[in-house]
Input
Amino acid sequence: MRFVKIKSLFVNWHAMGSSVDHIQVLLKEELSLFETKFREAVQSKVPLLDRVMHYIIKRKGKQMRPMFVFLSARLFGPATESTYRAAALVELLHTATLVHDDVVDESFQRRGFFSINALWKNKVAVLVGDYLLSKGLLLSLDHNDFEILKYLSTAVRQMSEGELLQIERSRNLNLSEEVYFEIIRNKTASLLASSCSAGAWSTSGNPEIAERMRLFGEKAGVAFQIKDDLFDYGDAEVGKPTGNDIKEKKLTLPLIYTLNQLDKSRRKEMIYVLKNKNRDKTSVRQVIDFVKKKGGIEYAEEKMDVYRNESLEILHEFPASQVRDGLEQLVRFTTERKH
Output
């Protein structure tokens, strides 16, 4: 059954804009101090490790997850030292997973730059990922941030489970929509969810509030991943080649929807192409065009909007404030971003 696209419940969005500039201004003090604390957190006595850490810090992304931590915290009070440690832990874990992902995927680029494994080979990349993970765990343990560590450790477990489930199910390209959502809730949304719950806990100390914010972040994270799926079918430069997921035999929501619309014979033909001709540019282009023709893009966009709006509904359970507006803007950015 097709989802009817939900009209936005919040009419002030266009006045707010879709970039993260406003949020970075709102969090200027926190982000500036966070940069210092993060550099301190990754310092070591090994020259090679320090060189790699310097390279990573210079090429960090938008730091969306730390922003979710700080905004979720400030929704319930001023940022605390525990908030900063939670943001650092999130960034350490996220960076560790990216370094390891590049090894697993045999990827030699990350955000337009050489990946760690491309410059220092797999052995160093794996050890660097392990180092980042251990630094994050010790950062929390040394300050008795046990509840925050529990949130983020759960996310690491879920991310591993999601990745392995995707590998298992993608081998025969037989993936239901239900399993797809289980994968992305674990693989992608869990870290964003934990960022929000950890931030909220750091200032509220309230497990019920932390759980509502976890669910808020999970729904925003699902919408974020669906948006990432849609980039595979676009024409703009988005940081990864169009059709890249198809080449890697990753079943995304537009493709799953399209396969489910086909009769047994046509589905078998398309799966054959995905398995055996996924490196052929012409075949990949034909798959993309077919997904568009069958309505896969529109369906995924509708699903994305549903999850985004459900996330914002939870957010609006809390009192209106500039910080709440910032969180809404950040959620909307995840679904309206261009890369």
